[in-house]
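Researcher: Structure prediction, please.
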Amino acid sequence: MEGNTVVVRAELPGIDPDKDVDVTVSQGALVIKAKREEKKEQKEKDTYRSEFRYGSFVRRIPLPDGVQESDVTASYKDGVLEVRAPMPDQAKQSTSSKIPISRA
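Model: Predicted structure follows.
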């Protein structure tokens, strides 16, 4: 949390955020899906070497009640995905009350 904003950061170096990352808000949760594909080839005089690496992940993060999908923003810079979700006004005004603890 930064002030009244939920902030989620994910380190995703070496990916193309336009093709490899999907950020959605669904059923009261932020869903981040990402995949990575890397291909490396090395050709020499009498040898050829090829390596492939694949990986993906999905994270589902519950959001406070009332967060609007239209208010959620995402940015990608220097290998870090940052998603911001402002808290709704009514959440700022919510009151808290102390719950007594009884002894048995």
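Model: The longest strand covers residues 29-43.
Researcher: Thanks, that helps.
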